[in-house]
Amino acid sequence: xxxxxxxxxxxxxxQICPRFCTxxxxxxxxxxxxxxVDGEIVSTTYGYNTGLAIDPIEKKPLYHFYPRSSxxxxxxxxxxxxxxxxxxWHITKxxxxxxxxxxxxxxEIVEIAKKYNCKSVAFTYNDPIVFWEYAxxxxxxxxxxxxxxxxxxxxxxxxxxxxxxxxxxDAVNIDLKAFSEEFYRxxxxxxxxxxxxxxxxxxxxxxxxxxxxxxxxxxxxxSKQELExxxxxxxKNLGDSVPLHFSAFFPKYKxxxxxxxxxxxxxxxxxxxxxxxxxxxxTGNLSNVETSSTYCKNCSKPIIVRxxxxxxxxxxxxxxxxFCGTKCDGFFDCM
Length: 335
Fold this sequence. Notes:
The protein is α/β, with parallel strands linked by helices and 335 residues long. It has helices spanning 89-92, 106-115, 132-144, 159-165, 181-188, 192-205, 224-238, 263-276, 289-292, and strands at residues 4-6, 12-14, 22-23, 34-37, 40-43, 48-49, 52-56, 70-74, 102-103, 120-123, 148-153, 171-175, 209-216, 244-248, 281-284, 294-295, 302-307, 310-314, 316-317, 320-321. The chain has an 8-stranded mixed sheet with strand order 7-8-10-11-12-13-14-15. Helix 2 crosses helix 3 and helix 7 (224-238) crosses helix 8. It is globular and about 65 Å long.
């Protein structure tokens, strides 16, 4: 097995993420779904999922990866992050008996995707890092059937795993939770640097399409200074054309005493990012046509108009702006 290191006395170290959990026989890692069984790390949720759903690709959110297409989404349970504000805590933090979950093989997932004409399959809801064997086996079969693969992840993984994982992923939305080590340490029980390293790797050393999402929590990660620093880093390390989504927080899990994010916070963050020079900046999960639409980076006319997750206007010829002919960054069908 890869991404594990045998130690003395039957212990084994899991090496998929920067936690490097050292596990005794029978012990589970921080994610509670990877376990030492007879000196090997076993994924206890392989083949089990918390449900299959057909979504618009815009819901991931991916706005520049085959807009208007359908994606078959699934996840398991468990997570290697410790976010107190988790919006899917009932999946990521709830130690469900896997026998109560749906069981669907990688082959069956591909057949379902084909049956419902899904252009892609997404590993989402919880972090695919913790079920990477299941995700990878599914991705390999997807590619044999010309089905694209999508990951929605925190990016909190080791680079060795990233080289393997993103080799079979066509598009990813990485949840950049904040641009502060203090925020990651206090609110996620994790670290920012490994996430930034993975984001740089994906953008600069793979063919995987990359988009970023930051969920803004008022008073925690929404200061103008922090957002400006985040945008400066993105432009310096990734370029100005990586789509960036700002989404709203809603009280969940251990943050029930916090207020929902006001739309003005998202709007101001979007303006900050645009002023810094980013070309494609969006607000998400609070519907607004103006701030959810894509504008040509040359003539500024609307080339993809969205109302929620629905595309209501599409002004691209292939990948080019229908008004001035400028290429829009991403992957688009010639429709």
